[in-house]
Every structure is written in C-alpha cells, then in structure tokens.
Write a structure and sequence with these properties.
With 518 residues, the protein is an alpha/beta fold. The chain is built from 20 helices and 17 strands.
Amino acid sequence: MSGITHPEECSGELRLLYEISTLLSASLDIETVLRPVLETLARHIDMQRGIITIVNRKMGDIVIEEAWGYGPDEIEKGHYQPGEGIIGRVIETGNPVTVPRIAEEPHFLDKTGARKKEDTRILSFICVPIKTGSEVLGAIGIDVPFKSDTTLDAMVRILLIVASSISQAVRLRQAREEEMVKLREENERLQAALQTRFKPSNVVGNSKIMRTLYQHIEQVSNTSATVLLLGESGVGKERIAHAIHYSSSRANAPFVKINCAAIPQSLIESELFGHEKGAFTDAAATRKGRFELADGGTLFLDEIAEMPLATQATFLRVLQEREFERVGGCHTIRVNVRLIAATNRNLEKLMAEGLFREDLFYRLNVFPLVIPPLRERKTDILLLADYFVERFSREHGKKIHAISAPATQLLMAHDWPGNVRELENCIERAVILSTDGTIHSYHLPPGLQRERSGQLVQGRTLTGIMEAVEREILVEELKKTGGNMARAAENLGITERMMGLRVTKYGLKNKGVDNVTE
C-alpha cells in the first residue's frame, strides 16, 4: 500500500532528525547552524541543492541566507518578493508547495539560473515555510531527482520538522541581518548629512561622538590655540593633528612632528631647538631644530608625557615666549609656531607623582580634545573596515569586494583594545589572506573567533583549531563550486584524492557530490 512507510525509511528519518537536533543543542552560536543543517540534509536525502531564505521585515524582500550546491553568482541573483514564484508563494501563504517536475511548473522562476543546464523534467522541488507561531520567517527549498507524490509528501513532513527546529536560529539571523541593514543605512544617512558640513578628509567616522569631535576641530583649527590630544594608543591622534593643521590658515606652512619617546634624553633639546657647530662632540655643522623648521606652521609633539623633566623646564619657557637659543648658541631665535601635543597617559596622575610639571600641563591644556576609543563608536567599525579594505586592496593588488556576514559579526563583537590601529592591521591581514574576493571569518585573527564563542571548548587543541579552520575553508570552496570537488580541489591547489579524503574526514561527503575516492 502506498501509505505505508518502510522501517528502513523511518530509521533514516530518525537519524537525520537526531543529527539536526544534536547540531542545534551542541552549538554555542545558534546563528551558525543553518549551513550545517543543509549539509546534514544533503548527507541523508538525495538532495542536489538546497537553500534557506529569510524575509527582511523592513524591506519586504526575500533573500537567500544559506545555500548548498549553488555558486556565489547564483546566490546573488536569489532575491524574491512575497508571492513571487514558488518561494514567494510559500512565504506569502505559509503553506508548503511540492513541484513534482520543475519543467511543468510555470510559477517556478529559477531566478538563480542554477538549473539552466539541467533536464528539469526529471527534477522535483520542495519548499516549506519556516515559522514562529503564525509569522513566516523564511523558507527551506530543496531540489531532488524526480520522486513520486508519496515520497514527496514524506519529504515535506521531514522538512517541516526541520524548519520548526531551526526557527529560532532563523529568527536570530533575521534580526541580525536587519540590524546590519539598519546600521549601514544610518551610516549612509550620516555620511550624506556630513557632506555639507565640516569633516576632516583624513578621518573616518560618522558616529555621534565623532561628529562632536569634528565640530571642536572646526572651532579650534583657525585659531593659534595650543591643542592637547588625549586618548588611548591607536585611536588616531596624529591624524587629528593633521586635520587641525590642514584645516587651518597654516595649511600651506610646514607640519613638523617629533615623538618625544623615540629620542634619547641627551639629544631631545638638540632635536627641538637645534645646535650650533661644535656645540658637542658630533656637532659637525649647525643644525636647525624642529621648532625652527616649523616656523609659520604647526609643531606636533607626540608622547609629550615622555619628555624628560629637565627638558620640560626649557620647553615651558619656549612655549611662553616663542623664542629660544640653539644648543651651544647665544643668538635668540623667535618663531611663530602653533603647538599640538598628544599623549595616551594620564598627565594629572603623572603630575601627582612628580613626573610632569604642573605649570607645563596648564600651558598645554588650553584646548583639550579627547579622541574616543573604537569600542565607544561601534557604528564606525564597518565604515572603517570598508575604508581599509579599499585601501589595502589597492596597495596589495587584490580585488576584495565584500566582507562576509560571519566576519562582520566578529568585527562588531570585538572590543578593539588596540583601537583603529588594531582594526587596520586586522583588515590588512585579511586582505592578504583572501583568495576569493571576500573576507571570511577565518581570515580574521584567532583571538576574535575565540571571543565570538565566549571561550575555547575545553580540551580544544591546536590540531582541533586547525582542523576547524580547514573544514570551514573546504565548506566555503564547495559552496562556491556548487559541490564540485574536482573544481574545489583545483582552486585550493590540492589533488582530487586529497580533496576526497578531507571531504570524507569532515563528513562533507554526500550524494550530491561526485564520489572521487572510489
């Protein structure tokens, strides 16, 4: 009788549902299980390709969120509206749809173009909704070789159970994607608004705290007031100093910088004020100091807290009088210099410890500007990341066109103790490592990935971590090649036999992939 389910079929269904249940209960990050769910389906049923689509509630469109057996270009084309095609109908009605023969279904659009070279007369399509209560979040759609109506009904039943199981993961992914869209829209809105307002060309950021900083830079730039830049290492104090100078009336005059921490104590006065010939053993010729070189322009003193106490007294007099003598000289030199100082240390604490002169502090602290750390302007992270991707793509001759969703999540979740400099180095590394025009999560430093999962799983060894990375690379490459192991092996620079062994090792082998190990 057609309605009877064979015991071995029932056993296969139970194994499939057990594996998916194990995946969902074992994952520390429920959002990452959608791809493994498709892979598990492919191992247990005769699935040629599969997708999970999600509805964007704000935009009203439907996009492919995860796919198995599709190429990147095909995924990119997979955009639908409610009611459009089979997927749109399932999401609009909340009811599953089976298409026994794709070639005979006029509503089947094949917008991805994945089936254009296949005989769709012997191909079936099943699509079921993913729901929470009465709300439809998305859909699962799979291609299988032509099946009888009875078999298709049984597969619908399995997919409905799977859809119910992953609804929480889909809801989280939906919320995250909508938040990312909202964040990008806000950045675009702010960027457009700032086009008619003052914004330094060398500083990237549209967050509220940065817009306030831009206002202060605009206010102080066209004065001669001394500016003290305060902030953690890596926040971009030198860039702000550049912005102040090049937004001022001194923009065509010299911008001279000196790092007080990088010059030996015995030479710092010579560096600042210059020296006369014969002033000391190695003074073979008269030399202008940084103050003299910056005449008419701006002198930027980075790491001002590292200036020796003995030099601070001399420096204070120059700051007050704008005149000095070169080391070994007696001729007074007057200069017109705008001073900008910067430090990442607490000057008030250093004053209390007797390591920084109080009178010098008050001379420097005319117009203090606090540069915010990156963790306090999270909305700027994606903007900065895009900026660095574009910059390093040019510098290294790479064509990077996207940052993947998992990589974006890692960037947004990190606190960036090294601030913009840490993000800059992170993106440069990722650009160098990328081989497919996209920055993936495994291109980012391991520290970011450990934070994403909260902590390393107890007992996780170096070998385990390396295997996890290798598996992710294989999955990504198989995803790009539509499950074609021969092409994936060629792209990765390994033999088909090695590819087959690794696919088997990581449980990626299924009936939709050529069995190259036989």
